[in-house]
Amino acid sequence: SLKPIRKQIKKLEFLQVRQKKQHLIRYLNGIVRYHRDLENYKILNDAMERINLTNDEKILNLSRANHTLYEFLLPNEKVEDEKPIINHVVIKADVRGSTSITHQMNKRGLNPASYFSLNFFNPISDTLNDYGAVKVFIEGDAIILSIFEREKTPEGWYSVARACGLAINMLLVIKRYNQKSKKNQLPILEIGIGVNFQNESPTFLFDGSQRIMISSAINLADRQSSCSKSIRKVLKNKKSVFDLYVYQSATDEEVRQSSDDILLRYNVNGIELNTPGFKKLSEEINLTAFELEAPASQPKQIKMYTGKFPLTTGRFQRLIIREGIIPQVDPETFRILKNTDRKYYEICTHPK
Question: What would the pLDDT profile of 114-172 be if each residue is shown by its tens digit?
Fold first, then answer.
């Protein structure tokens, strides 16, 4: 029935102007509150849709590993959690000519798996705690390691320095076991190492209970640890105290347009540190710059850096870094065309 409404309309007609204004203000206040509450409801609803309440153990583990889990626990339920990861370094070590070594070992009736384990994987695993490194995974003839930096733990913010130190130790282990292999007439190992720093946390997923790390640093470290066969043929007789050389066969424009690493490398028992990693290293420790003359390796003076860093055990280790200029070469003859403005960094290990 519309009678109550019509009755109210008649009452309003006899109201004074002041009373009508009061009714109008009351009505406007109500409309404004309604729109405010409606917008707040939309915001709240959108926020609630972003929240997923779960008791699935797999989702809980995955969210906890990637720091997207918010737990509201009773005091007796709380445990000491690891601090969130703020950045990380990946160390990739790649064995050269593993197929040939495996063939030689099989031909002599020896077990190549035992050879790689005893001369490569096991000795390296024994040194990881000193540098705060963890094993990401092993793929055939390569090992991938990582060092994490976590929030509110400045005593551990030496990830790049320790990654470089670990890489040096890995090469020393290989050289030491190679001397034994020569005495026993076994194949010797050659490796290339890439150290890649990323100023962000990696992502994790789970295969059952096994945690798998996903990071662009893994692919980039793989490129750094590689060695171009064509470049190796050209430099096989080069006598040098350095073990890493980086070349650009593409044009500057092609390099700028590509998001991928399209450089050519000679890396035989060498260690390459990426440019963001060198910048982070200079923030971690006090690096002293100096110039070195090495006519057999390079006619011009070479820019070098050195500094010490602490291991987790409290001991200190020295690093020596060479700053190299990436030259552009002819892709067919490998003749140097010009020096580019790009740089690369080698962690030096030669005794001299």
Answer: 888 887 888 888 889 999 999 998 876 789 999 999 998 899 899 999 999 999 999 99
Global pTM value: 0.77
Alpha helices in 136-212 (DSSP H): 159-183
Q: Which residues make beta-bridge pairs with 69?
A: none
Give 83's DSSP letter: P
Name the 3-class secondary structure at 134.
strand
**For residue 102, what are its two tokens?**
């495996």
Cα separation values, 30 from 15, 16, 34, 170, Å: 20, 21, 6, 74
Query: Distance (Å, rounded) from C-alpha 337 to C-alpha 328?
Result: 6
CB atoms within 10 A of CB 252: 13
Q: Which helix (H) or strand (E) holds 87?
A: strand 85-95
Q: Which of 308, 305, 279, 301 is nearest to 290 (CA)?
A: 305
Distance CA 80, CA 226 (A): 40
- C-alpha distance from residue 215 to each of 19, 125, 167, 196, 201 (Å): 70, 21, 19, 10, 8
- The C-alpha atoms of residue 213 and residue 67 are separated, in whole angstroms, by 14
* Per-residue confidence (pLDDT) for residue 298, from 0 to 100: 59
Determine contact, residues 306/318, Cβ cutoff 8 Å: yes
For 4, 8, 19, 21, 24, the CA distances from 11, given in Å and listed in that order, are 11, 5, 11, 14, 15
Cα(47)–Cα(59) distance, integer angstroms: 20
Contact 66, 203 (CB under 8 A): yes
Phi and psi at 54, nearest 5°, equal -145, 150
- CA distance linking residue 320 with residue 351, whole number of Å: 11
Q: Which residues have a Cβ under 8 Å from the Cβ of 215 and sit 6 or more positions away?
A: 88, 90, 146, 198, 202, 203
* CA atoms of 249 and 148, how far apart (whole Å): 34
In 3D space, the residue among 261, 348, 258 whose CA is nearest the CA of residue 303 turns out to be 348
